[in-house]
Amino acid sequence: MPSTQVLAFGVTTLLATGTSALYTGCDHYNASNFFNEFSFFNEADPTQGFVNYLSMDQANLSSLAAFTLEASPSIFLGGDYKTANPPNPGRNSVRLTSNKSYAQGLFIADIAHMPNWPNSGEIDILEGFNENMNNTVTLHSGEGCVMSGPGSLPTSILTNPNCNANNGFDGCPTSTSNNQGYGPGFNEIGGGVYAMEWNSSAITVWFFPRSAMPADIIAANEMTSPDPSKWGTPTASFSGPGCDIGSHFKNHSIVFDTTFCGQWAGQAEVWGSSPCAALAPACNQYVAANPAAFQDAYWLINKVMVYQDYEAAGTK
Ligand SMILES: *[C@@H]1O[C@H](CO)[C@@H](O)[C@H](O)[C@H]1NC(C)=O
Ligand SMILES: *[C@@H]1O[C@H](CO)[C@@H](O)[C@H](O)[C@H]1NC(C)=O
Ligand SMILES: *[C@@H]1O[C@H](CO)[C@@H](O)[C@H](O)[C@H]1NC(C)=O
Ligand SMILES: *[C@@H]1O[C@H](CO)[C@@H](O)[C@H](O)[C@H]1NC(C)=O
Ligand SMILES: *[C@@H]1O[C@H](CO)[C@@H](O)[C@H](O)[C@H]1NC(C)=O
Ligand SMILES: *[C@@H]1O[C@H](CO)[C@@H](O)[C@H](O)[C@H]1NC(C)=O
């Protein structure tokens, strides 16, 4: 992110004056302000996907890619599922980046994905590819950040502790084993909330199905932050003396995107060793020829809340 954007006006920032706020500043993104506070990225896909990221006007004109559902206000971010064999650079889609960037805080969202890769780190809260059924939470960093994963669900596995693995490209992934947290299982239950507490000592992620959201997340507003210490065992946690979080993760904006193929999912060996191999010899070929397969490939976002300025309870 250019630093001018770092300083751009965020959303309503209110200071809580009560005595119990854990965090005191809150940016609340929802259908009323999302398209003012997030920018359409319409350059070449940094992950080299078979994708054509649209500008806001193009996206809105196509009414496929980005608009607000008026009946129940939420943010729809989809992609083209009608055009067969789109020309290069690929299938129309959108990639939205928050104007504001953040270093540490409490993030509450259906879904979020964070860039500035890899020297200022990247935190992928919700990410998967091809026919994955479960989410993988991954941190990507510059050299010298080795994590452990204490206290997370026993079924969550930190498969590589080195967040700079493969020069940061692979990062340190924690695989999870709740198929309601990703893809078809997630959509079937109406989704849920991903929450992340990012502070100087840990990066901690929770997933709550919509039917099991903590009361303080449901009640969260600009004045009152929820309290992660009451949420129970996290889905993924990253901490330990091997990584100075403050120096490896900074200035992250929030990104929502849908891309096709590219450096990860599109690699011949990744495609070829997944169930997708039965569909077509190569990822781009499949994506080009099968628009209807992407009708369900959209985000629907109710809200994203970001709390900053941690204060211990009662100190304000
Ligand atoms: C993060 O943003 C601050 C404020 O704009 C800037 O001073 C700092 O250089 C940025 N750091 C990085 C790594 O981009
Ligand atoms: C949507 O966000 C705005 C701006 O932060 C906030 O004032 C408003 O209360 C939010 N709407 C709902 C329904 O929470
Ligand atoms: C966010 O950034 C976009 C494009 O850079 C700009 O048009 C928009 O005015 C910005 N929003 C705010 C609230 O500053
Ligand atoms: C899309 O166009 C409609 C109709 O002109 C407008 O009401 C809406 O605000 C636009 N949305 C965006 C994201 O530009
Ligand atoms: C995905 O989650 C399901 C249960 O929801 C589990 O049975 C399966 O083993 C998980 N897969 C992986 C690769 O962890
Ligand atoms: C950082 O977040 C973790 C996870 O919620 C929490 O256990 C820890 O107390 C926090 N540390 C600080 C210094 O706030």
Automatic annotation (TrEMBL):
Keywords: Signal
GO MF: hydrolase activity, hydrolyzing O-glycosyl compounds
Keyword Metal-binding assigned: no
Keyword DNA-binding: no
Protein origin, superkingdom: Eukaryota
Signal peptide: 1-21
Ranges for domain GH16: 1-312
Name of one Pfam family that matches: GH16_XgeA
InterPro entries registered for this protein in UniProt: Beta-glucanase-like, ConA-like_dom_sf, Glycosyl_Hydrlase_16
Chain ranges passing through the membrane: none
Biological processes per GO annotation: glucan catabolic process
Classification via CDD domains: GH16_fungal_Lam16A_glucanase
Residue ranges the record marks as coiled coil: none
Descriptive protein name: GH16 domain-containing protein
